[in-house]
Amino acid sequence: MMLERKSAGAVVFTEIDGERYYLLLLYGAGHWDLPKGGIERGESELDTVRREVREETGIEDLVIIDGFRKVINYFYKSGSALVRKTVVFYLAKTPQTEVRLSHEHNAYAWLKMEDAMVTLTYKTAKEVLFEANQFIFPLERSGYYEGAPLRRTRV
Ligand code: ATP
User: Which of 25, 82, 84, 124 has a CA-to-CA distance to 98 between 20 and 30 Å?
Assistant: First the structure.
């Protein structure tokens, strides 16, 4: 038997003294992952992202960065069934670094890109983080970030 499950989550980051830190959670099962959870009936993907981030970390102040959305898939066994999981990830910034964990997780960490990449357990999660980081950098370099010009160039 094959079951289909869909979750939504986010690459959540904060900036302290010009450095960017990404939020990772240590799941009870022992793997480090991004905040995410099942999409409930009637919820949009972004509703789920906001609810799951709030439930898993206590973070309420989330600014979703427009234009980033990445879908991953993986399979796992649940009893005798094979589950095909789809997870949709968004990118979000927060000024809130204080985290209140739920019972689902054993630890959290705010990590710089390189540390976050080696800490994440699964390849697909690393790919999401890599792409999210790439998504932010070119925007910064071109002078645009969160839709607002950081510096104007006269022509
Ligand atoms: P959710 O957080 O979406 O409610 P869950 O906690 O029920 O989901 P998953 O986190 O999807 O379930 O974990 C189910 C199984 O899949 C676990 O054995 C976990 O180790 C494994 N798993 C989690 N993320 C990945 C991934 N990116 N790639 C491969 N296997 C994964």
Answer: 124
